Amino acid sequence: MANNSKIAGTASTSERGLEAKLSEALEKLYSGQGAKAQELLQALGREASEAGDLVVARRVRTSLMALARKGTQASLVLPASSEMTIQVHLNRGEGKEALAMAEEALKAAQDRGGLHYLKALALAQLGEGERSAEALQQALTLEPGLHHQFLLEKDFDSVRATAAFGEFERF
Fold first, then answer.
1. Are both 98 and 155 inside the same structural domain?
2. Which domain holds residue 65?
3. Is 164 exposed, middle or buried (0-12, 13-18, 19+ CB in 10 A)?
4. Both 150 and 103 in a single domain?
5. What is the pLDDT of residue 109?
6. Can you give the chain as a three-state secondary structure string?
7. What does the pLDDT average to over 70-89?
8. Are 95 and 122 contacting, i.e. CB atoms less than 8 angstroms apart?
9. Over the stretch 133-156, which tens digit does the pLDDT of each residue have?
10. Based on CB atoms within 10 Å of each CB, which residue in 59, 80, 93, 166 is the most buried?
11. How many domains, in total, are found in the chain?
């Protein structure tokens, strides 16, 4: 997340509230309630922008763009991608579930930087700094553009001070 409200590795109530709302909106989307998802996402986008949460605001914009491309019929059903499902677990603070899903998805797609990045996030949530840094290195090797996202992501705050993360902070 873009603000510095995390203390001792836990997100603030308002930050988790935005993530919970994002998860709710995405669940509506994947359960075929496209119109309701769009409504929730639009409200969340305004709220995240007002709160200065650039990461959630960006995720909302991306979701709204996808909805615009696909249409917003109430019957819209999109298959939940592995990455999106993992992200929902991460938003809920369910690091174990996210890690299990990321590792399973990576068995079939080792070349996807986004999956390695989500694995790194899950490991960071679980306090496994060394393994998180290894997964992040894989992600950045495949998708160097993820570095900026890493710098803004508050879920890495609990492991940033470890030696394994020193090289990532220099950029």
1. yes
2. 13-70
3. middle
4. yes
5. 85
6. CCCCCCECCECCHHHHHHHHHHHHHHHHHHCCCHHHHHHHHHHHHHHHHHHCCHHHHHHHHHHHHHHHHHCCCCCCCCCCCHHHHHHHHHHCCCHHHHHHHHHHHHHHCCCCHHHHHHHHHHHHHCCCHHHHHHHHHHHHHHCCCHHHHHHHCHHHCCCCCCHHHHHHHHC
7. 61
8. yes
9. 999 999 999 988 888 888 888 888
10. 59
11. 2
If asked whether residues 154 and 97 sit together in one domain, one would say yes
* pLDDT of 11 above 60: no
At which residue do the structure tokens 């998708």 appear? 143
Buried b (16+ CB within 10 A) or exposed e, 67-82: beeeeeeeebebebeb
Query: Are residue 65 and residue 95 in the same domain, yes or no?
Result: no
**62 occurs within a structural domain:** yes
CA separation for the pair 130, 123 (Å, rounded): 9
In a domain, 3, yes or no: no
Q: What is residue 19's predicted lDDT score, i.e. its pLDDT? A: 84
CATH number at residue 142: 1.25.40.10
Span of 75-79, 116-120, 131-135 with lowest mean pLDDT: 75-79
C-alpha–C-alpha distance, residues 69 and 94, integer Å: 30
Shared domain for 89 and 155, answered yes or no, is yes
